[in-house]
Design goal:
With 309 residues, the chain is α/β, with parallel strands linked by helices. The protein has six helices and nine strands; from the N terminus they run βββαβαβαβαβαβαβ. The protein has a nine-stranded mixed β-sheet, with helices on both faces. Helix 1 packs parallel to helix 2 and helix 1 packs across helix 6.
């Protein structure tokens, strides 16, 4: 099975609600398409052969649609196997998103990874292995056009999304008195509006599953400082989004989990978490039996006990 790379259509420079500074010129050999188009690379990621989406009549030639055994609606209390499940991970360029994507692949899931940097996404394929069921989709969550194109591509598969994990995150220090509104806009677009739009676009399929939506909250409330006001505003919005989604879909069996990451992350110290630690938490939450929903998971590195001399 070939690993594929896709590029979400849409010109973020032409998106009037896109963050300031995001309207850069296209990269070499990269074409900017209208909002509803999608560039489709049907060769392995190392190749550069581009096929126009208008010329593609069939489903993409990758088997992300073959799922594991279909559930009969019963719950035998066993762990929820990820084998064959269709999963989507945003913010997969590096850090937590990358670790989550690789953990899901290792658990047997079929994974579509979204991020801004196509080269970094391609490196996930290298680490996952040449025959791994991974699709890479370059998508800037700050662009509504690109989010729409990404969602349109995902919905082409005849299996709805089983797990959607929101890992994309932008953090810029900015107090109320001195913060730049452009920084606030970027954090809002990527941290809150992008996840809202993508979840909304995929929701009908997630409800049919029923599926599971996971939000990564990279910091807990206690760690916010006066210089983090803008960022805290967007993260609080994400928590409201998760809560509202849970209330709206609870009767349909959809599970919604927020993973709150406290303390330091991947700084090499014994009392810090690594992205793999967070990925383990995500995997644990989504593998719970369907009758169990972990709503809020607060995780931090264990504080080592003091050893008196």
């Amino acid at each position: 099975m070939s690993n594929l790379r896709y590029m979400a259509g849409g010109d973020s420079a032409g998106d009037p609600t896109g963050p300031a500074g995001r309207g850069a010129e296209p990269r070499a050999n990269e074409r900017v398409l209208p909002d509803d188009d999608l560039d489709l690379l049907t060769e392995p990621v190392s190749d550069e052969f581009v096929v126009d989406s208008e010329a593609v009549e069939q489903e993409p030639e990758i088997d992300l649609r073959t799922a594991g055994e279909e559930s009969d609606g019963s719950d035998d209390g066993l762990l929820h196997s990820m084998s064959g499940r269709l999963t989507v991970v945003t913010g997969a360029n590096d850090g937590i998103g990358r670790a989550v994507a690789l953990a899901l692949v290792a658990a047997g899931a079929r994974v579509c990874v979204l991020g801004r940097d196509a080269d970094l996404l391609a490196s996930i394929v290298v680490d996952a292995g040449p025959d791994s069921p991974v699709v890479t989709l370059r998508c800037d969550l700050g662009s509504a056009a690109e989010v729409r194109s990404a969602a349109d591509f995902v919905t082409r598969f005849d299996r709805p999304v089983d797990v959607l994990v929101h890992c994309a995150n932008v953090r810029v220090d900015g107090a109320v008195g001195t913060g730049d509104v452009a920084d606030l806009d970027e954090q809002y677009l990527v941290n809150l509006r992008g996840p809202f739009l993508l979840t909304q676009a995929l929701l009908s399929g997630i409800e049919r599953g029923p599926g599971h939506v996971v939000f990564i909250n990279p910091t807990d409330d206690a760690s916010f400082s006066s210089g983090d006001t803008q960022y805290a505003m967007t993260r609080s919005g994400v928590m409201a989004l998760a809560h509202g989604l849970r209330e709206e879909t609870a009767q349909l069996g959809v599970r919604v989990t927020t993973v709150h990451v406290g303390g330091r992350l991947h700084d090499g110290r014994n009392d810090s978490l690594s992205p793999d630690d967070v990925a383990d938490c995500v995997l644990g939450a989504v593998e719970m039996p369907q009758r169990i929903e972990i709503t809020d998971l607060h995780v931090r590195a264990r504080v080592a006990p003091r050893v008196d001399a």
